[in-house]
Design brief:
2 strands; 2 domains; mainly alpha; elongated
Length: 305
Protein backbone atom coordinates (compact mmCIF):
# COMPACT_ATOMS: atom_id res chain seq x y z
CA UNK A 1 0.00 0.00 0.00
CA UNK A 2 1.41 3.38 -1.00
CA UNK A 3 1.35 6.24 1.60
CA UNK A 4 -0.77 8.67 -0.40
CA UNK A 5 -4.29 9.98 0.06
CA UNK A 6 -5.30 10.03 -3.60
CA UNK A 7 -4.06 8.46 -6.82
CA UNK A 8 -3.43 11.93 -8.27
CA UNK A 9 -1.20 12.81 -5.32
CA UNK A 10 0.67 9.51 -5.65
CA UNK A 11 1.21 10.02 -9.37
CA UNK A 12 2.51 13.57 -8.86
CA UNK A 13 4.87 12.60 -6.02
CA UNK A 14 6.26 9.59 -7.89
CA UNK A 15 6.86 11.59 -11.04
CA UNK A 16 8.83 14.13 -9.00
CA UNK A 17 10.75 11.34 -7.29
CA UNK A 18 11.56 9.47 -10.49
CA UNK A 19 12.22 12.57 -12.56
CA UNK A 20 10.00 11.39 -15.39
CA UNK A 21 6.39 10.68 -16.22
CA UNK A 22 4.97 7.34 -15.26
CA UNK A 23 4.62 4.84 -18.07
CA UNK A 24 1.22 3.50 -19.05
CA UNK A 25 1.98 0.19 -17.30
CA UNK A 26 3.07 2.02 -14.15
CA UNK A 27 -0.14 4.06 -14.12
CA UNK A 28 -2.18 0.86 -14.42
CA UNK A 29 -0.22 -0.77 -11.60
CA UNK A 30 -0.54 2.35 -9.43
CA UNK A 31 -4.27 2.54 -10.06
CA UNK A 32 -4.71 -1.11 -9.07
CA UNK A 33 -2.28 -1.50 -6.17
CA UNK A 34 -2.21 1.89 -4.43
CA UNK A 35 -4.93 1.06 -1.91
CA UNK A 36 -4.14 -2.64 -1.49
CA UNK A 37 -1.86 -4.13 1.16
CA UNK A 38 1.26 -6.05 0.15
CA UNK A 39 -0.15 -9.22 1.68
CA UNK A 40 -3.29 -8.87 -0.44
CA UNK A 41 -1.10 -8.57 -3.56
CA UNK A 42 1.00 -11.55 -2.49
CA UNK A 43 -2.15 -13.66 -2.29
CA UNK A 44 -2.75 -13.00 -5.99
CA UNK A 45 -0.16 -15.72 -6.61
CA UNK A 46 -2.78 -18.31 -5.67
CA UNK A 47 -5.13 -16.86 -8.29
CA UNK A 48 -2.32 -16.87 -10.87
CA UNK A 49 -1.63 -20.56 -10.18
CA UNK A 50 -5.33 -21.40 -10.29
CA UNK A 51 -5.76 -19.76 -13.69
CA UNK A 52 -2.58 -21.26 -15.16
CA UNK A 53 -3.26 -24.84 -14.04
CA UNK A 54 -6.94 -24.62 -15.00
CA UNK A 55 -6.66 -23.09 -18.47
CA UNK A 56 -3.26 -23.87 -20.02
CA UNK A 57 -3.64 -27.70 -20.12
CA UNK A 58 -7.25 -27.52 -21.38
CA UNK A 59 -6.75 -27.45 -25.20
CA UNK A 60 -4.60 -30.60 -25.33
CA UNK A 61 -6.68 -32.42 -22.70
CA UNK A 62 -9.93 -31.54 -24.48
CA UNK A 63 -8.63 -32.80 -27.83
CA UNK A 64 -7.40 -36.00 -26.17
CA UNK A 65 -10.81 -36.65 -24.63
CA UNK A 66 -12.39 -36.05 -28.05
CA UNK A 67 -9.73 -38.35 -29.57
CA UNK A 68 -8.75 -35.77 -32.16
CA UNK A 69 -6.58 -37.55 -34.72
CA UNK A 70 -4.77 -34.31 -35.55
CA UNK A 71 -2.85 -34.46 -32.25
CA UNK A 72 -3.02 -38.14 -31.23
CA UNK A 73 -0.20 -38.92 -33.64
CA UNK A 74 2.05 -36.75 -31.45
CA UNK A 75 1.17 -38.57 -28.22
CA UNK A 76 4.32 -40.05 -26.71
CA UNK A 77 2.59 -43.04 -25.07
CA UNK A 78 -0.41 -43.55 -27.37
CA UNK A 79 -1.60 -46.77 -25.70
CA UNK A 80 -2.25 -45.05 -22.37
CA UNK A 81 -5.73 -43.54 -22.02
CA UNK A 82 -7.02 -41.41 -19.15
CA UNK A 83 -10.76 -40.95 -18.62
CA UNK A 84 -12.43 -37.58 -18.24
CA UNK A 85 -13.27 -38.52 -14.64
CA UNK A 86 -9.61 -39.28 -13.94
CA UNK A 87 -8.55 -35.95 -15.43
CA UNK A 88 -11.10 -34.05 -13.35
CA UNK A 89 -9.95 -35.83 -10.16
CA UNK A 90 -6.35 -34.84 -10.93
CA UNK A 91 -7.37 -31.18 -11.41
CA UNK A 92 -9.43 -31.18 -8.20
CA UNK A 93 -6.58 -32.63 -6.13
CA UNK A 94 -4.17 -30.06 -7.58
CA UNK A 95 -6.49 -27.17 -6.71
CA UNK A 96 -6.83 -28.43 -3.12
CA UNK A 97 -3.05 -28.67 -2.82
CA UNK A 98 -2.58 -25.13 -4.16
CA UNK A 99 -5.06 -23.73 -1.62
CA UNK A 100 -3.83 -25.67 1.42
CA UNK A 101 -0.08 -25.86 0.77
CA UNK A 102 0.88 -23.06 -1.62
CA UNK A 103 -1.49 -20.54 -0.01
CA UNK A 104 0.24 -20.40 3.40
CA UNK A 105 3.58 -19.77 1.66
CA UNK A 106 2.32 -16.27 0.85
CA UNK A 107 2.77 -15.44 4.55
CA UNK A 108 6.55 -15.46 4.06
CA UNK A 109 6.59 -13.74 0.67
CA UNK A 110 8.62 -10.52 0.48
CA UNK A 111 8.59 -8.76 -2.89
CA UNK A 112 8.69 -5.13 -3.90
CA UNK A 113 5.24 -3.91 -4.92
CA UNK A 114 5.81 -0.19 -5.41
CA UNK A 115 7.10 1.92 -8.27
CA UNK A 116 9.01 2.11 -10.52
CA UNK A 117 8.23 -1.11 -12.34
CA UNK A 118 11.29 -3.07 -13.49
CA UNK A 119 12.58 -2.50 -17.01
CA UNK A 120 12.30 -5.26 -19.58
CA UNK A 121 16.05 -5.89 -19.44
CA UNK A 122 16.00 -6.12 -15.63
CA UNK A 123 13.14 -8.64 -15.75
CA UNK A 124 14.87 -10.80 -18.36
CA UNK A 125 18.11 -10.97 -16.37
CA UNK A 126 16.31 -11.78 -13.11
CA UNK A 127 14.17 -14.44 -14.79
CA UNK A 128 17.32 -16.03 -16.24
CA UNK A 129 18.83 -16.22 -12.75
CA UNK A 130 15.61 -17.71 -11.37
CA UNK A 131 15.57 -20.41 -14.05
CA UNK A 132 19.22 -21.36 -13.55
CA UNK A 133 19.02 -21.43 -9.75
CA UNK A 134 15.77 -23.40 -9.77
CA UNK A 135 17.03 -25.83 -12.39
CA UNK A 136 20.22 -26.75 -10.53
CA UNK A 137 18.73 -27.06 -7.04
CA UNK A 138 15.62 -28.86 -8.33
CA UNK A 139 17.86 -31.43 -10.02
CA UNK A 140 19.47 -32.50 -6.74
CA UNK A 141 16.27 -32.44 -4.70
CA UNK A 142 14.46 -34.43 -7.39
CA UNK A 143 17.31 -36.90 -7.48
CA UNK A 144 17.13 -37.27 -3.68
CA UNK A 145 13.38 -37.95 -3.96
CA UNK A 146 14.27 -41.01 -6.05
CA UNK A 147 16.17 -42.68 -3.24
CA UNK A 148 14.14 -45.53 -1.72
CA UNK A 149 12.83 -43.61 1.30
CA UNK A 150 12.10 -40.40 -0.63
CA UNK A 151 10.30 -42.24 -3.41
CA UNK A 152 8.26 -44.62 -1.22
CA UNK A 153 7.17 -41.95 1.27
CA UNK A 154 6.79 -38.89 -0.94
CA UNK A 155 7.60 -38.91 -4.65
CA UNK A 156 5.60 -42.01 -5.62
CA UNK A 157 2.42 -39.88 -5.58
CA UNK A 158 3.67 -37.80 -8.51
CA UNK A 159 4.61 -40.97 -10.41
CA UNK A 160 1.08 -42.34 -10.25
CA UNK A 161 0.90 -40.95 -13.78
CA UNK A 162 3.30 -43.09 -15.83
CA UNK A 163 2.05 -41.23 -18.88
CA UNK A 164 1.65 -37.67 -17.53
CA UNK A 165 -0.91 -35.05 -18.50
CA UNK A 166 -0.68 -31.27 -18.15
CA UNK A 167 -2.91 -31.19 -15.07
CA UNK A 168 -0.51 -33.62 -13.33
CA UNK A 169 2.46 -31.24 -13.41
CA UNK A 170 1.92 -30.16 -9.75
CA UNK A 171 0.14 -33.38 -8.72
CA UNK A 172 2.27 -34.51 -5.79
CA UNK A 173 2.49 -35.23 -2.08
CA UNK A 174 2.15 -32.07 0.02
CA UNK A 175 5.69 -32.59 1.33
CA UNK A 176 7.04 -32.65 -2.23
CA UNK A 177 5.29 -29.36 -2.98
CA UNK A 178 7.14 -27.82 -0.04
CA UNK A 179 10.49 -29.46 -0.88
CA UNK A 180 10.48 -28.55 -4.56
CA UNK A 181 9.06 -25.15 -3.69
CA UNK A 182 12.46 -24.28 -2.19
CA UNK A 183 14.15 -23.96 -5.62
CA UNK A 184 11.20 -21.90 -6.88
CA UNK A 185 11.62 -19.29 -4.13
CA UNK A 186 15.42 -19.52 -3.86
CA UNK A 187 16.14 -17.46 -6.98
CA UNK A 188 13.82 -14.60 -5.99
CA UNK A 189 15.30 -14.71 -2.47
CA UNK A 190 18.85 -14.41 -3.88
CA UNK A 191 17.97 -11.73 -6.44
CA UNK A 192 14.91 -9.88 -5.08
CA UNK A 193 12.65 -8.36 -7.67
CA UNK A 194 9.27 -6.78 -8.18
CA UNK A 195 6.00 -8.64 -7.66
CA UNK A 196 5.38 -8.39 -11.42
CA UNK A 197 8.68 -10.19 -12.06
CA UNK A 198 7.76 -12.91 -9.58
CA UNK A 199 4.37 -13.46 -11.21
CA UNK A 200 6.09 -13.62 -14.61
CA UNK A 201 8.48 -16.22 -13.18
CA UNK A 202 5.63 -18.30 -11.77
CA UNK A 203 3.70 -18.16 -15.05
CA UNK A 204 6.67 -19.12 -17.23
CA UNK A 205 7.88 -21.88 -14.90
CA UNK A 206 4.46 -23.48 -14.53
CA UNK A 207 3.72 -23.26 -18.25
CA UNK A 208 7.00 -25.07 -18.82
CA UNK A 209 5.99 -27.73 -16.28
CA UNK A 210 2.62 -28.17 -17.99
CA UNK A 211 4.27 -28.57 -21.39
CA UNK A 212 6.80 -31.03 -19.97
CA UNK A 213 3.99 -33.15 -18.50
CA UNK A 214 1.62 -32.78 -21.46
CA UNK A 215 2.39 -36.24 -22.84
CA UNK A 216 2.70 -34.83 -26.36
CA UNK A 217 5.75 -33.96 -28.42
CA UNK A 218 4.66 -31.36 -30.93
CA UNK A 219 7.27 -30.58 -33.62
CA UNK A 220 6.24 -26.90 -33.79
CA UNK A 221 6.82 -26.16 -30.09
CA UNK A 222 8.96 -22.97 -29.85
CA UNK A 223 10.84 -24.34 -26.82
CA UNK A 224 12.59 -26.83 -29.12
CA UNK A 225 14.83 -23.96 -30.16
CA UNK A 226 16.01 -23.25 -26.59
CA UNK A 227 19.52 -24.69 -26.00
CA UNK A 228 19.66 -27.61 -23.53
CA UNK A 229 15.89 -27.54 -23.05
CA UNK A 230 14.40 -30.88 -21.96
CA UNK A 231 10.79 -30.83 -23.04
CA UNK A 232 7.95 -33.34 -22.94
CA UNK A 233 9.68 -36.29 -24.62
CA UNK A 234 12.66 -35.97 -22.28
CA UNK A 235 10.59 -35.90 -19.09
CA UNK A 236 8.06 -38.45 -20.34
CA UNK A 237 10.87 -41.04 -20.34
CA UNK A 238 11.40 -40.32 -16.64
CA UNK A 239 7.74 -41.09 -15.89
CA UNK A 240 7.70 -44.09 -18.21
CA UNK A 241 10.56 -45.77 -16.34
CA UNK A 242 8.87 -44.93 -13.03
CA UNK A 243 10.18 -45.50 -9.53
CA UNK A 244 13.31 -47.25 -10.72
CA UNK A 245 14.23 -44.26 -12.83
CA UNK A 246 17.69 -42.87 -12.23
CA UNK A 247 17.55 -40.82 -15.39
CA UNK A 248 16.32 -37.43 -16.61
CA UNK A 249 15.96 -35.57 -13.33
CA UNK A 250 16.23 -32.20 -15.09
CA UNK A 251 13.67 -29.56 -14.23
CA UNK A 252 14.04 -27.38 -17.34
CA UNK A 253 17.50 -27.77 -18.89
CA UNK A 254 19.40 -31.00 -19.49
CA UNK A 255 22.97 -29.99 -18.69
CA UNK A 256 22.95 -31.43 -15.14
CA UNK A 257 21.80 -34.83 -16.40
CA UNK A 258 24.56 -34.75 -19.02
CA UNK A 259 27.31 -33.60 -16.63
CA UNK A 260 26.42 -36.10 -13.89
CA UNK A 261 25.63 -38.96 -16.27
CA UNK A 262 21.96 -39.38 -15.43
CA UNK A 263 20.69 -39.30 -19.00
CA UNK A 264 22.55 -42.33 -20.38
CA UNK A 265 19.50 -44.61 -20.37
CA UNK A 266 17.43 -42.04 -22.24
CA UNK A 267 20.13 -41.37 -24.82
CA UNK A 268 20.65 -45.10 -25.39
CA UNK A 269 16.93 -45.71 -25.88
CA UNK A 270 16.57 -42.73 -28.21
CA UNK A 271 19.54 -43.87 -30.30
CA UNK A 272 18.13 -47.41 -30.44
CA UNK A 273 14.67 -46.25 -31.54
CA UNK A 274 16.17 -44.04 -34.22
CA UNK A 275 17.96 -47.06 -35.66
CA UNK A 276 14.93 -49.35 -35.45
CA UNK A 277 12.38 -46.78 -36.66
CA UNK A 278 14.21 -44.23 -38.80
CA UNK A 279 12.13 -41.15 -39.51
CA UNK A 280 11.50 -40.34 -43.19
CA UNK A 281 12.85 -37.00 -44.37
CA UNK A 282 10.51 -34.00 -44.44
CA UNK A 283 10.28 -32.61 -47.95
CA UNK A 284 9.00 -29.29 -49.25
CA UNK A 285 8.36 -28.44 -52.88
CA UNK A 286 8.02 -24.99 -54.42
CA UNK A 287 6.51 -23.89 -57.71
CA UNK A 288 6.56 -20.36 -59.12
CA UNK A 289 6.31 -18.51 -62.44
CA UNK A 290 9.56 -17.07 -63.78
CA UNK A 291 8.01 -14.22 -65.70
CA UNK A 292 4.64 -12.88 -66.73
CA UNK A 293 5.92 -12.85 -70.34
CA UNK A 294 7.15 -16.44 -70.32
CA UNK A 295 4.83 -19.37 -69.93
CA UNK A 296 7.32 -21.25 -67.79
CA UNK A 297 7.28 -22.50 -64.21
CA UNK A 298 10.20 -23.60 -62.05
CA UNK A 299 9.92 -26.34 -59.44
CA UNK A 300 12.44 -27.37 -56.81
CA UNK A 301 12.34 -29.27 -53.53
CA UNK A 302 14.13 -29.39 -50.20
CA UNK A 303 14.38 -32.48 -47.99
CA UNK A 304 15.37 -32.43 -44.32
CA UNK A 305 16.31 -35.75 -42.77
Amino acid sequence: MLPYQTLQEAELELELELGRELSYAEKLWLDYSANKSDFYLYCHTILVLFVIFSLVPLPVVFMEIKKAHTILKYKIQPKVKISAQGIFKCWKDVMITICLVVGPLQLVSVFRTGLPLPSGWEMVMQLLVYFLVEDYTNYWLHRWLHCKWGYDKIHSVHHEYEAPIGFAAPYAHWAEILILGIPTFLGPAMVPGHMITFWSWIILRQMEAIETHSGYDFPWTPTKYIPFYGGSEYHDYHHYVGGQSQSNFASVFTYCDYIYGTDKGYRYQKHYLEKVNPQPPICFSFRFTVSDFMNMEVCFGICIS
